[in-house]
Amino acid sequence: MSEIVNKKYIKRHKKGFIYFHWINAICFGVLFLTGLPLWVHALKPVYEALGPAHLQIIHRIFAVIFIANPIIALLFTAREGVGTLIREIFRFDGDDVKFLVKFPGELLGKEPEGMPKQGFYNGGERMNIALQMLIWLCLVASGLVMWLGGGLIDNSIRAWMIPLHSIAAGIGFAAAIGHIYLAIGVNPDSFQGMKDGTVKASYAEHHHTKWCDALVRSGKVSQAELDEAVRH
Ligand code: HEM
């Protein structure tokens, strides 16, 4: 069956991956907001008003979902989806380096000349994936040591988990803001992929040319179908 939908769109993300993405995004947001009053002095009144015990319970419930979500998603979307995220990191190549050199122009909403062809994910997305995975590991490891490590792990080591947890949360938040800006402000066509799983063929051909070439090579889409969808 062709990957083209309604003669204009290409199937990009599986439903399972879309659920994973939004559960991860919501968890990260709630964890950040419930953890923030602990570090930001100005938010102490919020902390007192909502009750530290309530914030802690919410933080821990969402932490469990944040930990389980990628593990469950990997079981269901190992071939495409989360499996693709992991494989894509190791595909970082010379074209990604060239892309990153020209990327600041794209960040400002321009269309830099001579952008190299990009695969399923571009160089910036590949870096975002690697960074988000590292941040997940740091948050989960430091969080679990603080939560369950009492009596098991030396207190001098546990004390280091506090700065590690907050630095990882801070970098993760900054990366998430950049990512949201790029998705909504710079490439709004990509956002449809996180809603119904499809993107405009014209967007895919322009921003992920190597991926489209691979779809044609594998016979999932014919060149004629792709050309027609791009024109639509
Ligand atoms: C309103 C919030 C968000 C929006 C609108 C959004 C949008 C998107 C879109 C459109 C894609 C697909 C890109 C493509 O198909 O090429 C994507 C992928 C992804 N998102 Fe989000 N996202 C949001 C929040 C988050 C958050 C909070 C995180 C992490 C904490 C996150 C992590 C990722 C990752 C790792 C990917 C795959 C690689 C990438 O595109 O960088 N997203 N997101």
Descriptive report:
There is one protein chain. 72% of the residues lie in helices and 3% in strands. The protein is built from eleven helices and three strands. Helix 6 (123-148) packs antiparallel against helix 7 (155-186).
Short note summarizing the structure:
The protein has 232 residues and is mainly α.
Compile the SSE list and pairings.
Blueprint: E1 4-5, E2 9-11, H1 15-39, H2 44-50, H3 52-76, H4 82-89, H5 94-107, H6 123-148, H7 155-186, H8 188-193, E3 198-200, H9 201-207, H10 209-217, H11 223-231
Antiparallel strand pairs: 1-2, 2-3
The structure holds protoporphyrin IX containing FE (HEM).
Protoporphyrin IX containing FE (HEM) binds next to helix 1, helix 6, helix 7 and helix 8.
**Main beta-sheet strand count, sense and barrel state:** 3 strands, antiparallel
Alpha carbon gyration radius: 21 Å
The spatial strand order of the largest sheet comes to 1-2-3
Number of helices: 11
Q: Note the run of SSEs as H and E.
A: EEHHHHHHHHEHHH
Number of DSSP strand runs? 3
Overall pLDDT level: 93
**Overall 3D form:** elongated
- Broad structural category: mainly alpha
Distance between the termini: 20 Å
Small-molecule binders here are: protoporphyrin IX containing FE
Helix percentage: over 70%
Low-confidence stretches: none
The portion of residues forming beta strands comes to under 5%
Question: Which properties best describe this structure?
Answer:
single chain; mainly alpha; three-stranded antiparallel β-sheet; 11 helices; binds protoporphyrin IX containing FE
